[in-house]
Amino acid sequence: MPIYSAAQTPSPALTTLYSFSGEDGDGAGPYSAVTYSADGTLYGTTAYGGVFNSGTIFELTPPGPGGGAWTETVLHSFAGGNDGTYPYAGVVAGTGGVLYGTTNYGGAAGLGIVYELTPPIGQGGAWTETVLHSFSGSDGAYPYANVTIGANGKLYGTTELGGTSNYGTVFELTPPAGSGGVWTETVLYNFSGGSDGACPYAALTTGSNGDFYSSTVAGGSSDKGTVFRLALTKGGTWTETVLHSFTGSDGGFPYAGVTIGTNGALYGTTAGSVNAGNGSAFELSPPTGTGKPWTETVLHKFTGKSDGGAPHAAPSLGPSGSLYGTAFGGGTGNRFNGFGLLYQLTPTGGGSWAESVLYEFQGGNDGASPNAALIPGPSGVFYGTTLGGGTLGQGTVFAFTP
């Protein structure tokens, strides 16, 4: 039986900062997490809405010292076509406040792009979007996740499909040597669809030694997904190692990437299998010796009921080793499988963990169906998004204090 405690009646601990309308150029349907900047501004994307209904990039500015509402500004509306369509991924901030991201469709071949959004030179000016790379299929197709900024300004990411076997890729984008030059894409790994994994939906997480860690939603020994590492060898080539293949009894189909803990362990979630396809939260502990395998521990098996179900995002690290996350479904809302919830996983000793439900979405102004991870801010606040709900049912951005 899962160990968890039920949430109380929704409390003021969750504050809806903004409800998307999908009207008059506003966005709709934020699939991804927001990015928190040092001045408290939040940046993110909506997959739909905007002037051309192809998605937006938005900025959410906190109120001044006198209080008031947060202010949303649409920085860019994707126009479809070569400009990009449907940014399911969020944005990451680089040097000088430049934002980088991907769209799942659009570009020269319609298979997705990597873009750059540059702040205006003067106050009140427009942000400028530049397409850095259009995927052609052989080099990847349909990027779903955020890019990761590496050394020397390089960008790293995954594509859901494409590559030599059409089961997805890991790619690198190298900035030009001089102003006005072209970014150069290199495919670091092509998934075969077999034991090495297939269809990576998640972003790459960088380890302390420069290795990348992530997941594939399919493939592996039971075709239920994997967690993998991509490491640069002394010869200059990248080598993929499957750290774990899911079997169903421990979870399956991880749409989320992984979070690295202070002990080098990897934490993540699966969206399916175990209890009627409701997913799990897991820990992967590094080997205790050379040549030994990583050890998986299932921290919680979701039931799809009051404890949540089908988590689509990796948990975030909190104080005292606790994990904080979102479940796309479950809870006690008035819908068949609930409107989703926020949970906490706490180590209780002896390798056991206990789940506490922190907040259950009601599907109204507070939001519904949280698809993305919680992002830590100052003073213990977490920021997140919901795919639905809000005043017009087009999704929300919220703040939550456990």
Number of strands: 31
Work out the radius of gyration.
Answer: 20 Å
| Class of secondary structure makeup | mainly beta
Strand content: 35-45%
Number of helices: 0
Distance between the termini: 25 Å
Largest sheet: 5 strands, mixed
Overall pLDDT: 94
Q: Helix fraction?
A: under 10%
Query: Strands of the biggest beta sheet: in what spatial order?
Result: 1-28-27-26-25
**Broad shape:** globular
Low-confidence stretches: 1-10
Folded structure, characterized:
With 402 residues, the protein is mainly beta. The protein has strands spanning 4-5, 14-19, 27-28, 35-36, 42-46, 48-49, 56-61, 71-77, 92-93, 99-103, 113-118, 128-134, 148-149, 155-159, 169-174, 184-190, 205-206, 212-216, 226-232, 238-245, 259-260, 266-270, 280-285, 295-301, 316-317, 323-327, 341-349, 352-360, 375-376, 382-386, 396-400. The model is unreliable at 1-10 (pLDDT under 50). It has a domain at 192-360. The strands form eight sheets. A five-stranded mixed beta sheet has the order 1-28-27-26-25, with no helix packed on it. The chain has a four-stranded antiparallel beta sheet with strand order 2-31-30-29, with no helix packed on it. The chain has a four-stranded antiparallel beta sheet with strand order 4-5-7-8, with no helix packed on it. The protein contains no helices and 31 strands.
